[in-house]
Amino acid sequence: MNIVKPYRFFLLLLLFACSKGKEVSNTINNPIVPVVVAPKITLPTVAIADTPTSLSSTSIVYNAKILDNGGEGVTNYGICWSKNSTPTLNDFKYNYTGKLIGNFETNVQGLKGGTVYNFASYATNSAGTNYSTIKTVKTPDPINVVNCQLPEMMTRGDVGIGFPRIANRMKSVGTLTINVIFVDFSDAASTKTPQEVYSILTPTAETYFNTVSYGKLNIQFKPNLKWYRMGKPSSDYGWDNLTFNLHKQYIQEAINIADADIDFSGSDAFVIIANPDATKIKNGPAFTASKGAGIKVDGKEFLSSATSGNDLKVWGGLWFNHEFGHDMSLVDLYAYQGSAHRFVGEYSIMGLISGAGQDLFGWEKWILGWLSDDQVVCVNSGVNSALLTPIETAGGTKLFTIPISKTAAIVVESRRAIGYDKNLPKTGPLVYIVDTNIPSGTGTIKVLPIDETDIKKLQSPMVVGQVMNYLNYSIKFVSTDLNGDVVEIKKN
Ligand SMILES: [Zn+2]
After folding, report:
1. Domains in the chain, ordered, with CATH?
2. What is this structure's pTM?
3. N or C: which end of the chain has fewer CB within 10 A?
């Protein structure tokens, strides 16, 4: 579609109006038969400001104006943009519907930094669509996202959510083959079939990772559906004061027994499922070893594993996803001491397996490689705004990150009541602090506002128009629609 120069239509409009005037004067002496002539509808004319009201590497706000509605109200108006020289309605557009004459504002999100775009405002009535002159703008270069990748401080050594992800942990992208081994005990012989117990795990665990990773992590269990009897009663494995070495001995024993039937050389990992009725094996921790301290079998060393316990009956199959989260380096987001959920409430399966917000934080997904760097907007000055698409769906910009110290950042993401977050009672932008200098179980992530008496945090998502202040930054929830939440960040 071509851009029509508005002045040509203005001239046509004037000529037309003059000739009509003459016709009326020639009928003065004739008998009057009143004829109502419908006003001729012409294309509307529209203008765009010379410079944008605000500009960031991902967004632009332009004022525009409908100068003439062409004889009737316009039905659609807005701004369209393209990397090509002539933007039209077939390109990206920010559209309003309804009748208007006068000024309007357009807030364009989701642009790429360091990119040249052409913008034109437009207006449509029954005669067609007309465009303004074209404005060419180059968005500022984005701040390199590396500036927001907080360093891994190795405060604990086996798990952490800093960059780069801890090398000893499991790969988090691709297909993983995981052996599933079932064990019981002389004092806790299983009364269920291995298949019955396995059905707690599958397909719940595989489906969870496939969904929350946007299809990037594919778990393939290889169950060995028989009970292997352990050498000691369940009460003799030291679960009340389980240490790394006791846990390792338990796993090594189970693997040695099962090794007669299983070739582990092609496996990525294994899990040991204890008879869930064995109350002495009360819980199911992850095993996260460093090189040389792992489980050795079939010529391989396995550094990451998990063993289930009696609480498998409480958590169900998502127990695996929490523990395997550790195997991939994620930290515990609940508190080891004091009120357990005061840091992140019911968000993230690493905070509470059975919470209302079972999806992971966007930061966790970024660490695991499920979000790419270009889905993260790194901010450190000026005004920045972005359309954040919900963390539960694939694609789009997912995170705003603002470094506030060498190890900490403010992070903003959009949460919706869909998928594993379907039980969230309130949705919108969720703001939290990540500090890689704070170890697992002591507040590595804290949801804002920090209120340690609000143990569920389910009222934390912002409402439209709300401004949240933290240190020198103000975070504003500008608007929302089906695509996501527009958030603006300003350094005061
Ligand atoms: Zn844990």
Report:
1. 6-138 (2.60.40.10), 174-327 (no CATH), 362-491 (no CATH)
2. 0.79
3. C
